[in-house]
Amino acid sequence: MDIKKIISGMTLEEKIALCTGGDFWHTKEMPQHGIPAIMMSDGPHGLRCQAAEADMIGINESLPATCFPTAVTSGATWNRELYAAEGEAIGKEGAAAGVSVVLGPGCNIKRNPLGGRNFEYISEDPYFAGHMAAAFIKGQQSTGVASSVKHFAVNNQEYKRQNGDSQLDERTFREIYLTPFEIAVKEGHPGTVMCSYNKINGTHASDSKELLTDILRTEWGFDGLVVTDWGALNDRIEGYKAGCDLNMPGGSQFMEKVTAEAVRSGKLDESYIDATVERILRLVAQSQGITKPEIDWDAHHALALKVAEQGAVLLKNENNILPLCENDMVLIGHMTANLRYQGSGSSHINPTKLVNITDAMPGVPCCACGDAQGNITEQDLREAVEAAKKQKVAIVVVGLPDSYESEAFDRDHMRLPDGHNKLVGAVAEANPNTVVVLLGGSAMELAWADKVKAILYMGLPGQAGGEAVANLLTGKANPSGKLTETWTISYDDVISKDTFGKKNTEYREGIYVGYRYYDKAGKPVRYPFGYGLSYTSFEYSALCVQDRRVTVQVKNTGKCAGAEVVQLYIAPPKGGIFRPVKELKGFARVELEPGESNTVEFTLDDRSFAIWSDGWKIPGGTYTVQIGASSRDIRLEQDVEISGEEIPAPAWQQGIWYESLSGRPSREEWESLMGHPVPVIPEPRKGRFNMDSTCMEMKDHSLVMKIQYMVTENIIAKGFGGKKDMSDPSYKMMLTCATDCPMRSVIISGGGAMSDSLAQGLLHMANGHYIKGLAAMLKK
Ligand code: BGC
Question: Does residue 229 have an active-site annotation?
Answer without folding.
Answer: yes
